[in-house]
Amino acid sequence: MGNCLCGGDGAPAGEREARDMLAPAGLEGYAVTLARAGFDRREALEALEEADFGAVEAFTGRPIPPGHRKGILQAARRYAASGSDGTGGGGGGRSAAT
């Protein structure tokens, strides 16, 4: 399988990132679709917008129903909000320690 950056579960790193974002919403079945369309990094997943779904569908050939789109977008917002939890997201909320 070429240059797969796979984790212990055998999934490519980007697919794993998408699955981590989608799993709490029960929509992890779309992880491969998003990763194949280039939404395979935390920054891209956090920036996902409604307008991106047309391109995702065109690129992958997989339709995403309107209700699932809303769930994916909600998951993306929650994922972005959790970015400062020490998982590599921004650390902008730190106060100076003396």
Quickly describe the structure:
With 98 residues, the chain is mainly α. Helix content is 47%, strand content 0%.
How would you explain this protein's 3D organization?
This protein is mostly helical and 98 residues long. It is 47% helix and 0% strand. The chain is built from 5 helices and no strands. It has helices spanning 13-22, 31-36, 42-46, 52-60, 66-81. The longest helix is centred in the C-terminal third of the chain and has 16 residues, at 66-81. 20% of the residues are buried. Residues 1-8 and 85-98 have low confidence and may be disordered.
Quick tags:
98 residues; mainly alpha; 0% strand; globular; disordered N terminus; disordered C terminus
Write the layout of secondary structure elements.
Blueprint: H1 13-22, H2 31-36, H3 42-46, H4 52-60, H5 66-81
Structural class: mainly alpha
Number of helices: 5
Task: Give me the count of strands.
Answer: 0
How many strands, what sense, and barrel or not for the largest sheet?
none
What's the end-to-end separation, in Å? 50 Å
Q: Strand fraction band?
A: under 5%
What form results from the Cα inertia axes? globular
Order of helices and strands: HHHHH
Rg (C-alpha, Å): 15 Å
Helix content estimate: 40-55%
Mean pLDDT: 81
**Low-confidence stretches at least 5 residues in length (pLDDT < 50)?**
1-8, 85-98
